[in-house]
Amino acid sequence: MTPHNLHPWSLSPDEAVKIQAALRGRLVLTWDGRPVTTVAGVDVSLGEAHARAAIVVFRYPDPSTGTPGQALVPIEGVMADAPLVFPYIPGLLSFREGPAVLAAWEKLQNKPDLLMFDGQGIAHPRGMGIASQMGLWLERPTIGVAKSRLYGRHQAPGPERGDFAELYDERDLKRVIGVVLRTCQKVNPLYVSPGHLIDVQKSKEFVLNCCAGYRLPEPTRWAHRVAGGEKLPVGPSQTRLF
Q1: Predicted TM-score (pTM) of this structure
Q2: Angular region, 19: left φ>0, alpha ψ -120 to 50, beta rest
Q3: 19 forms bridges with which residues in the sheet?
Q4: How many whole angstroms separate alpha carbon 45 and alpha carbon 65?
């Protein structure tokens, strides 16, 4: 599937803010029950002049058949670089990282059913983090899995794996925009929010099902490693990573 061409990437900051506001109304924040047999992690690293995106795809089994995370099998990992055409501005990082993500997407032979991004979904001041914006480009369910809070208010989650606290919109404290999820006992939680074509509850479930003893879910954990130059162990046997 060819990505939707939603907007140019070389823009002024004011133009980028207007585009985010326009795109916000196109997000679908419900889950349609589609089957998910593959899931990918996306991570982007930034150099002085280029962004490097890594996408790692895993086979995603039925979580009811075994221990969460333990049956994920790596299928494919790709990297791609793209020139930086947008300045560093908090809240507009999608415009720096997006072209590299699209370049990596074009390299993939196994397009995943769902993607997890190292970044925000709708837990963003304008409701348009990278997971949301790229979800619209790729027209796939996407989840933001961030290591720190960008936007929203919450209580502290409990200390055990699976404990969570709801993340509320700062301008509407009745609206839940994500969860603060403890993925390992006594480890700092993650900020999980839907990007596109998914809701908060299913976002939480997918992330927790992809965690296998580490703070980060395996898709984004391995995307980070591949972006750093590590080789994903894939081959005829499709060796498990755990």
Answers
A1: 0.92
A2: alpha
A3: none
A4: 35
Residue among 121, 105, 94, 95 nearest 198 (CA): 121
What stretch of H or E contains 207? helix 200-209
Whether 55 and 106 have beta carbons less than 8 Å apart is answered as no
Encode pLDDT of 84-124 as tens digits.
Answer: 999 999 999 999 999 999 999 999 999 999 999 999 999 99
pLDDT digits (tens, 9 = 90+) for 66-80: 555 557 999 999 999
Whether the CB-CB separation of 54 and 223 falls below 8 Å is answered with yes
Amino acid at 179: V
Instruction: Tell which CATH architecture fits domain 28-149+191-227.
Output: 2-Layer Sandwich (3.30)
Residue 104 CA to residue 115 CA, distance in Å, equals 13
Query: Rounded CA gap, 123 and 152, in Å?
Result: 6
Which segments within the chain are labelled E, that is strand? 38-46, 50-59, 73-83, 114-117, 142-146, 164-169, 172-181, 190-196
Q: List phi, psi (to 5°) of 140.
A: -130, 155
| Whole-angstrom distance, CA of residue 102 vs CA of residue 31 | 24
Q: What is the pLDDT of residues 25-52, one digit of tens each?
A: 999 999 999 999 999 999 999 888 999 9
Q: What φ, ψ does residue 23 adopt, rounded to 5°?
A: -75, -25
- Token readout for 136 is 């619209």
